[in-house]
Structures are given as structure tokens and as C-alpha cells.
Design goal:
single chain, 277 residues, mainly beta, three-stranded antiparallel sheet, 3 helices, 10% helix, 35% strand
Amino acid sequence: FHLGEQFVPLFSYERPVPWPEGQRNILFARRGIRPLPHLARAGADSPPTPAPDTQMLYKYLRAFGGISVPHATATDLGTDWRNSDSTAEPAVEIYQGGRQNYESETAPRAARPDDAIRNWHPLGTVTAALQKGIRLGFVASSDQYSTHISYANVLASAPTREAIIDAFHKRHVYASTDNIIADVRSGDHIMGDEFSVSARPSIAVKLIGTAPFAKITIVKDGHEVWSADPNTKDVDLTWRDESAVPGATAFYYVRGEQTDGQLVWSSPMWITFKPAS
């Protein structure tokens, strides 16, 4: 279904592995790479050590230039993040249109123990992965149960399969539940980047919504540290981290909540504050 520059699909398949290793969507820029068979899978109560089957998957993806995107991570289909690979697995599905939000236990549209689809595993939240030091960009996607309510937005340099995969590798992606435009930067850097600054980090947020934004939240190291209630469809603001610790690295991302309940998440930026001596 490749239609010139108007529609550029990837070659992909879903690799089904239950908790605690986790299902993953596998993406390639080229045709003809065979799906990977399985090794023995880790048991649900096994120690949280790296699982051989997922380690084999990462080697396969590195060899053939593919990437992995874990999904529904805090469910029976998810992972406790016993495995990670920044090259083979640069992004995570933070929201799934067919299920729920797996950002954290308290986030909007998040699953709860009493209403989770396919059970609830707090160790599988995206926040749990980030707080372990795993660096992941954010996308949303539909599974096979939803349409037009979950978007994997990719900031690619060209309308080609190769450029899309390259953007995933750089974590130049963001997630939304509607056709929302997000441009989140810090100086010359965009969402997904990791870098150092000599002044206290600042985050510039530009959003174009499909409805007014009821709330804009900045999340630092898994904690909500600032919010605003703009009540406008177009948002243009800058926030500075006055509590940044010299020499420390922190991750920051933005969540936007519209008045109609639609959501957008920027991918994190990992910023090290190194004051000039």
C-alpha cells in the first residue's frame, strides 16, 4: 500500500510473548525479513534477570536493522523491563487505543487494578522503565480494536521508510489520541534528545490541539513538577527548571490534556545540567 510520499508504511509484525518479557511490535524498513522463532520464555514468577528470548530478539534486530516497540506494558502482555536495548528498542507504546494508558498508575486514562484490561502489573508502567534509566520515546497505537484514536507521530527527515526508522532510533516521536501537533524543544534540541546545558534547563512547548487544552503538565523524573490551565487550542509557553541540580541528569516530558479528554505526550528529553565553571 505504498503510495509515493502520501503513505509510507513499514514492514512489521507483532511478536507475542506474555508477562514478564512482553509483547512487542517489530518494525523494518525493508521487505523479506523472516519473523524470529522463540526460545524458552521466562516464567511469570521468575527472577527479574535478562530473558534469553528477548536478548536474542535484540541481536536479530541489530543484525537486520529493525526496531522493537513494547506495548500494553503493564498488562499480562507486558514486561517488567528486565530487558532493554537503546538501539534495538528506542520507543514504547505509552497508550493503546484498544486498551489504556500505561504511563503511570495515576495518569489520565491509566489502567487501575479494578478496571485494567488484561490485568494490571505496576512494574510494567512506562514510568517504571524510565526510572530504571531506560531511555524510550513515546508513541501510541491502535492494536486491532480501534481506529483514529491513537497516533504514533514521527518527526522524520524525509517521507521514506528509512527516515522513519531513523527517527525512531533518535526517539524523535510523540504520542497522541487525536491529530494533535506537538513541538517540544530545549534550545536547539527536540523531544527524544539527550544533551548537556550550562544554564538551568528550559522547556519550550508549542501545541496545536483539536480542542482547547484544559491542562499542560511537565513531568520530571516521573513526577509532575509544573502545570498550567491555558484553556486554548494553541499553546506556546516556556518553563525553566529552577530546582535543577548541578551535575545531575533528569528526564523531562510534556503531557497535554484537552477539554474533550484527548491527550498528547512528548517524548522525554534527558538533560544534564553542567554549569559553567
